Amino acid sequence: MPKITGGCLCRAIQYEIDKEPTSSATCYCRVCQYIAGGAPSHSVLFHKSDVTIQGKPTAYWMKSEEGNSVARHFCEKCGTPLFSESEARSDYISIKVGSLDDPSIFKPSLNIWVESAQPWHGTLKSHTPKSKFASISQKIRQLFLL
Ligand SMILES: [Zn+2]
Ligand SMILES: [Zn+2]
């Protein structure tokens, strides 16, 4: 399998991964709307130990609605959102699909926080949970920093 690579717009921060993502999600929460410029945020999830990062992203820590401390990492120079991590699941890292060198590898599989979606966000997939936590396990919620 070829390595998965990516980085920020100015390339001050770059990363590579040896493994396939463990999961992927599209998050419509209000915080992701800030970070994605109004759009939902598409993320792929990896074991942190499988990801090698060059350069130093800046972290913004905040409490999630669930009370977990979560960090959102971005490039201080160009502002590209890159990673998220949660204290509750510190062995995982969520990578923003837009920072992948080949974003086409993303396979949308889960829509979360759809209650916060804007009317113009477009058609949500049929597997979308009816409420923000319906049919999402605690583990998945923590992984995607809810
Ligand atoms: Zn940058
Ligand atoms: Zn979100």
Describe this structure in words.
With 146 residues, this protein is mostly beta strands. The protein has one domain: Metal Binding Protein, Guanine Nucleotide Exchange Factor, Chain A (Beta Complex), CATH 2.170.150. Helix content is 8%, strand content 34%. The protein has helices spanning 30-35, 138-143, and strands at 4-7, 14-17, 23-27, 41-47, 51-54, 58-63, 69-74, 81-86, 92-96, 111-112. It has a 7-stranded mixed β-sheet with strand order 6-7-8-9-4-3-10. It has a 3-stranded antiparallel β-sheet with strand order 1-2-5, with no helix packed on it. It is globular. Bound molecules: zinc ion (2 copies).
The class by helix and strand makeup works out as mainly beta
Please tell me the total number of domains.
1
Helical content band: under 10%
CATH architecture: Beta Complex
Bound compounds, each kind once, are:
zinc ion
Mean pLDDT: 87
Shape descriptor reads globular
End-to-end distance, in Å? 31 Å
The H/E string reads EEEHEEEEEEEH
Q: What can be said about the biggest beta sheet?
A: 7 strands, mixed
Tell me the radius of gyration.
14 Å
Key terms:
146 residues, single chain, binds zinc ion, mainly beta, globular, Metal Binding Protein, Guanine Nucleotide Exchange Factor, Chain A
Summarize the structure.
This protein is mainly β and 146 residues long. It has a single domain (4-140), classed as Metal Binding Protein, Guanine Nucleotide Exchange Factor, Chain A (Beta Complex), CATH 2.170.150.70.
